[in-house]
Design a protein that fits this description.
The chain is α+β, with helices and mostly antiparallel strands. Helix content is 31%, strand content 13%.
Length: 121
């Protein structure tokens, strides 16, 4: 599991606050903490989507401080925990093989195949 900040949020450190959604007047808000620099550095660390072990090993904040920040971010929908999906094996197949796996002749199915695998719907 890892923690991922929303990629569309631009964070900006000012002298007395941290701006959230910097540059977006409709969504912009501010966060004020006892130590904006340390919190901003933690946000910078979180921007790399660290896993739980990496977060635990982050020593610039106490465990309770990290937990409070992560809870705040998750509660405001500024970030979220994501599961890591482990892929054991990737198999590349042709369009014809795909339809053979479906057990249906081509053109008889009701599905859209992702263009990412090179098959047109």
């Amino acid at each position: 599991m890892f923690f991922r900040l929303k990629s569309e949020i631009m964070w900006f450190l000012k002298e007395e606050e941290i701006e959230v959604y910097h540059g977006n007047e409709k969504l912009m808000s501010v966060i004020q903490t006892d130590d904006n620099i340390r919190v901003f550095e933690f946000l910078r660390f979180l921007s790399k989507a660290p896993n739980l072990v990496e977060i635990e090993s982050y020593k610039e904040l106490e465990e309770g401080e990290k937990r409070d920040i992560l809870s705040f971010l998750e509660g405001k929908n500024y970030g979220q925990y994501k599961n890591i999906i482990k892929v054991e094996k990737v198999m590349i197949i042709t369009e014809g093989d795909f339809f053979k796996l479906l057990g249906e002749p081509r053109g008889k199915q009701n599905c859209i195949i992702s263009s990412k695998v090179g098959v047109k719907p």
